[in-house]
Amino acid sequence: MLVNGKQEDTIAIMNRGFQYGDGLFETIEILANQPIFLEQHLQRLNKDSQRLYLPKIDLDLLHSEIKQLCENAGDAVLKIILTRGTGGRGYRQPDEIQPTRILSLHPFPHYPKTYYSDGIVARVCKTRLGLNPDLAGMKHLNRLEQVMARAEWNDDTIQEGIMLDINKRVIEGTMTNLFYVKKGTLFTASLTLCGITGIIRSWIFQQLPVIEHDFFIDDLRDADEIFVCNSVIGIWNVRELNGVHYYSENGITQKLQLALESEKQKQVVYAIK
Amino acid sequence: MLVNGKQEDTIAIMNRGFQYGDGLFETIEILANQPIFLEQHLQRLNKDSQRLYLPKIDLDLLHSEIKQLCENAGDAVLKIILTRGTGGRGYRQPDEIQPTRILSLHPFPHYPKTYYSDGIVARVCKTRLGLNPDLAGMKHLNRLEQVMARAEWNDDTIQEGIMLDINKRVIEGTMTNLFYVKKGTLFTASLTLCGITGIIRSWIFQQLPVIEHDFFIDDLRDADEIFVCNSVIGIWNVRELNGVHYYSENGITQKLQLALESEKQKQVVYAIK
User: Fold this and answer.
1) How far apart are CA A85 and CA A91, in angstroms?
2) Superfamily assignment of A113-265 in CATH?
3) CB A93 to CB B150 under 8 A?
4) Plot region of B81 (φ>0 → left; ψ -120 to 50 → alpha; else → beta)
5) With an 8 Å Cβ cutoff, is A264 touching chain B?
């Protein structure tokens, strides 16, 4: 782990990331030592840090630290945390902000291959996502809703929980974005009031037309395909939700899976060249 | 500072309090070495830790650590943080949770006496409170909304910012609960969808009948009195909000201020006996 460039595995208790969740994070797949979608992750971090009024990020420095950490990482997960640094007690931020930048490498979670090939079982969570346009979309450190939702089940045959907002609109998974296909059209939730705008979600928007709209669990009942995605798992077909089975050979999910694999390979090959 | 009973001023980066804001806190006034409203604070911590499915708190241990820390503290602020401990990457909590318990002493913030005697100037914040009944009321570590609201002003003539929810209902201050008086009746916001149920707020409910209801900034225009409260400042009259001046000699605010001072003195004297 690197904390502001130094090898450390602790931070000050008075760090505002700990005191208030005053910061952001990114979770990046490392494939054959190469961080995948790195520019997109750093762009989001940069954009969200502006929304939180954090000082300008030194992207060159961040790049060089990532390079250093990933040199021999193989396949792994890189987590970047950026906080408003240390400060006294109280919500008011210090006049001079010295942000804290934490890079940590984690083992790549080797999920069973069937999750990718056959799909997963999902459930609907009771814990709801609160609504707040000021914070919506950002991958910030206030993640109690996801923690509470993930604590709802321990059954290892269920791989993801679908979260609704307090008005029962379907928004996303606890750790993923959610899409569904009906009659050849791709739909997902608009994330203006809650949710996290994932990097894979944004990549999918560049591949195919997507309709962002409000929808409910009942709207998923007669969907042709449902899938979830994030930067570590890629894209997983949801083969079962609420007792309904979904499968579509050569469907949009599978096409996107293949395109995503190809995109990742391209990034690895390009980096090695 | 005491981290699980040991003198430390750092915590592990992998602590879930830092990774996700997965925890709670309490802010307690220490007056002449005595923690004020200690039982009420610990009861709230205990109740909220059950809502977050945290392991049962060892209250005897917590009591003895607080006693140790406050022995020579004089007038100070004690902050207690309780988190779900350390865990791997991912929202899922570990099978065995070893919570982290942090006690820290801070200097008592000596605000100008006029804040107490004459009142303060407040403003209305742009940052809104999101709605989520699952988390409402708790003093949890997800506090980005308060941080963003407090970052809206730097003008030291303004002492508190009033926060509305996303439906424009008045809820509370960035660091306080808010009450108002109209024709002899005391009102405050219901905190079932957002907000923190403060200890002084609960104490006020025991002193006088309070009507919890939905209200808007316009409803404050013809209020007779407005005040804000928390465990450190006690009760401050709001003498100016949105250009409107409020003052009421021998009003409900002043009566509650005197009753609160008397209650605190009683607790100090009782503890010394």
Assistant:
1) 13
2) D-amino Acid Aminotransferase, subunit A, domain 2 (3.20.10.10)
3) yes
4) beta
5) no
Substitution target in B54, B84, B91 with the highest count of A β-carbons within 10 Å is: B91
What span, in angstroms and rounded, lies between the C-alpha atoms of A261 and A235? 10
CB contact under 8 A, A133 and B166: yes
B9 to chain A, any CB pair closer than 8 A? The answer is yes
pLDDT, tens only, B238-254: 999 989 999 878 999 99
The C-alpha atoms of residue A68 and residue B212 are separated, in whole angstroms, by: 56
Superfamily of B113-266 according to CATH: D-amino Acid Aminotransferase, subunit A, domain 2 (3.20.10.10)
Q: Domain extents for chain B?
A: 2-107, 113-266
Going by C-alpha positions, the residue among B84, B16, B104 that lies closest to residue A14 is B104
* pLDDT tens per residue across span A201-241: 999 999 999 999 999 999 999 999 999 999 999 999 999 99
Q: A249 phi and psi, to 5 degrees? A: -70, 140
pTM of the complete model: 0.96
**Percent of chain A that is helix, strand, coil (3-state, to 5):** 30, 30, 40
The answer to whether residues A106 and A226 touch, using CB atoms and an 8 Å cutoff, is: no
Task: Please state which CATH class domain A2-107 belongs to.
Answer: alpha beta
- B contact residues 172-201, partner A, Cβ 8 Å cutoff: 174-175, 193-194
Tell me the sheet residues that pair with B114. none
Place of tokens 């949710």: A195
With tokens 């004089």, the residue in question is B74
